[in-house]
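pasting input
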Amino acid sequence: MPRLSDFVLITQVVTFGNERAFGQLVSAHQEAVRRFLRRLTAGDAMLADDLAQETFIRAWQHLKDFRQLSGFETWLFRIAYRVFLDEKRKKDALPTLSIGEEAVTFDRSNSSSSRAQSAPSLAAGAGRETETTGGESDRFSLRHDLDLALSTLSETERTCVVLQCVEGQSIKEIAQITDMNENTVKSHLLRGKKNLANYLRRNGYNE
Amino acid sequence: MATMNKRTELREEESTTNALNDDALLASFFSEHEETIADDGFSERVVSALPRFERAWTTEHLRLRRWRIGLNMFGAIAGVALMIYLGFFTYLWNLMQGAAMRIIAGALHFDGDSLLVNLLLLLHRLPELLPSLTQTVAIATATIVLMVLGIKQITQTYRY
């Protein structure tokens, strides 16, 4: 069955409280939101899914306030980012979020270089995974590499880089999502991409 | 001075080249690590966990509805008062009484033409008499009743 446009579905939800229409919206945008949250939570799929669920519930409750000034997905990313920050504030007392055997800390300083030096290497992460075989373990290894690499960035840099490089959001949209001005976003992007590229080169990743 | 400018230009050029190289490297890295996430019942779980929806327009809608009911009642009362004032009911009563008398009298020839003229006259005067929708509906209903009665009478007349 062809999917109705977001606009039509949103109208149905706002006017009639149509849960089926909202289900279609969730189905269409769940992947982007869950992927974005997975990158922010350093690959913790369960936590990311919980946050994604909370994101969609908030979207349901506030859909009447959505003024179509930005795209629906950008609006969802904005909510998802708020949900993530709320969760982070709640868990501030906890020092680490574990992914696999490594412990990746939520960023607490502004220095990316120190993190880059102390971060585990891609080769080490990949090497550990080579012991297991099969497509599933390969996929896990790739995701693990990705999250290890992103963990070397500050939280803001990571958010900006993921939104641009993974989710294809423009600088203007990233500014809307993160509530920063465009110049700040540009500066975070430039720094984050440079740090990430340096980290990848240091760990033997070439194009 | 010229040397300094040249150095600055070279530095800018180098920085642009580095940024482009970084972009290419990251594009390659992210495309290699592209992740697709299947729904796997996620949407259903979200929908089943949704709280009761509060329609955006509920409060405003109720307020408007109260206003609309009030206005309708006012319109209906004003319409009936206007119709009494203009003698519409007397006119209608006389018309119906005339028709009834003819039926009772067993007139063989029912004056359908004059009934139609009366209806046309009534319809023609409607805009002057009825400024509101409620009154128009009332008159239209009465007109339809009269037309039905008239048509019924005409058919009965021509049957015998």
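fyi The interface with chain B takes residues 13-17, 19-20, 22-23, 26-27, 30-31, 34-35, 38, 49, 52-53, 56-57, 60-61, 64, 139, 142-143, 145-146, 149, 161, 165-166, 190, 193-194, 196-197, 200-201, 205-207 of chain A (CB under 8 Å).
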